[in-house]
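Thread title: Can someone regenerate the structure for this chain?

I was given the following input by a collaborator and told the matching structure tokens would be attached. They weren't. Posting the sequence so someone can regenerate them.
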Amino acid sequence: MNSTLKSLLFWIVLILVALLVYNFSTKLQPHDRPIQFSEFMAKVDSGEVSSVTLVGNEISGTYRNNDS
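Best answer:
Regenerated them for you:
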């Protein structure tokens, strides 16, 4: 194999590994699921929400099953 082909193969493998790491790391991060305020309040009233956080105009909460 000549050095140009080895270098090209190295960069292709490096890019593929970087893409796989990025893809894997983004899937592990928790994703918040936005819902309507009325739906959120109904879940609070029914006891499905264990905690609520208010930051400015944004309201977030954690369900009893630890989903955000």
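The mean pLDDT is 84.
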